[in-house]
Amino acid sequence: MTDPWQECMDYCVELTKQAGEVIRKALPKDKTMEQKSSPVDLVTATDREVEQFFFSSIKEKYPTHSFIGEESVAAGASSVLTDSPTWIVHPVDGTTNFVHRFPFVSVSIGFTVNKEIEFGIVYSCVEDKMYTARKGKGAFCNGVPIKVSGQEDITKSLVLTAMGYNADPEKFNIMLANIKTIINIPVHGVRFTGSAAVNMCLVACGSADAYYHMGIRCWDMAGGAVIVSEAGGVIMDISGRPFDLMSLRLIVASSRAIAERIVKEIKQFPCCRDDTDD
């Protein structure tokens, strides 16, 4: 019997390879960029080109499927997740990295059915690392199985997060304070790559032991979430509740002990949701 979702995944891998080639060719060129919500929320012609490539390709092959893309939503499209087979696309995860030629730039795709992530693909295109996972079938990097580190002691852990400009001084101060709190546990170190999808895959392959973020979008998380889970990792909400793709918050970790310690240590701030207009 033909597996329709595996067919979708195989098709997505091919599209992602093509998208990665577009990004690699554009990387050394001067970038024309625009601001979106803030002076550091950037978009380039490559972001839009890659998303349109995915949108048109998917619509031609799977006309009944739904689509959520970062740039489409920025232009006013809905980000409400339904039971319909849905492609959630981040065309260039790490646009600021891309603009500065900092080599952590990825294409991230998550595919959901009945609001559950069926497969995820993250292509770190400068590194030429293709991370893939299908629900219940394991996680891989360039076809080789990957596993989380299994580390349970946070004092022996490398922790990833993200930090950048935030116009809300209260949220900005909480983010700074949380980094100080994590460093002072102490942990082996805190790192920023600038790509949420890459961060999740680094946990999945055992190169880091945890990643947390508040204010992250569904297209940042959808590809990496199933990769972490299938690699044996733990994924949950910042509050410790079950992971919610539309909540803008997550922790991924090599073990439940580390995830729960981060929940205990960091201070939360309220986030809106991707599936509301708030």
Major beta-sheet overview: 7 strands, mixed
| Strands, count | 14
Percent in helix:
25-40%
Strand content: 15-25%
What value does the Rg take, in angstroms? Answer: 18 Å
End-to-end Cα distance = 44 Å
Instruction: Choose one word for the global shape.
Output: globular
Going across the major beta sheet, what is the strand order?
A: 3-4-5-6-7-8-9
The chain-level mean pLDDT equals 94
Low-confidence stretches: none
**Helix/sheet category:** alpha+beta
**H/E topology pattern:** HEEHEHEHEEEEEEHEHEHEEH
Number of helices: 8
Using brief descriptors, characterize the structure shown.
278 residues, alpha+beta, 14 strands, five-stranded mixed β-sheet, globular, 8 helices
Verbal overview:
This protein has eight helices and 14 strands. It has 278 residues and is α+β, with helices and mostly antiparallel strands. Strand 10, helix 5 and strand 11 form a beta-alpha-beta unit. The chain starts with a helix and ends in a 13-residue tail after the last helix. The mean pLDDT is 94.
